[in-house]
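pasting for ref
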Amino acid sequence: MTGDRAEPEFDRELPDLPPDLRWRSWMQRIEAVLFASASPVAREDLARVVGQDASLDLLVEDLAADLEGRSFEVARAADGWMLRTRAAYAPVIRAAADVDGQSLDLREFDVAVLAAIAWHQPITRDGLKDIFGKEISRDLIGRLHTRGLIGIGPKSPRRGAPYTFVTTDQFLIAFDLETLRDLPDQEQLDDAGLGAT
C-alpha cells in the first residue's frame, strides 16, 4: 500500500443531472467542505469535488450569494476560502459561548511587532530591535507563537545563525487578510495615526 491519499469514490462531473441541479450540487459540495474545515481551503482542494470544467470562482460567488442574510459567510483568507460567522454576530457569540480562549488580547505594541514581522519577514529579534530601538522580549515572541500568529522562518545555514520569524496563515485569518499583499502601506498607517514615530 502506498502512502498516497486515495481519491474518494464519487462522481465529480454529475453528467446525469440537469445543468441547474449539477451546479447546485457542486455548490453544496463546496459548502460542505468549507463547513467541515477549521482553516481556509485552497482552490486545488475545492477543485477536487466539482466537475473539471466548473468555474470554481463562480461557484463560490453563487454560494456567497446563497448565504446572504444568513449568520455566516464565505470569506477569502490565506489563499483559500472559509466559512465564518458574520462580524455582526460577535457580541451574540461572546454572550452565549465561552470564547475567551479564542480572543487574541493583543496590546498595541504586540500588533506593531506583528506588523514589523509581516512587512520584513523573515526577520530576526535583532532585526526587530533595529526597528523598535529596543530588545523584543522572548515572552512577547512566545505569546505570538503560542497564538499561532508567527512561526519560525528560514535559518541561515551557518552555525549559530539566529532564528527568523514569519507570519502564519492564522495571522492572515485573524486580521482578515487574503495575502500579505493586503497589508496596509506606510501612507495608510500614517493616515490612521499608526505610523512609525
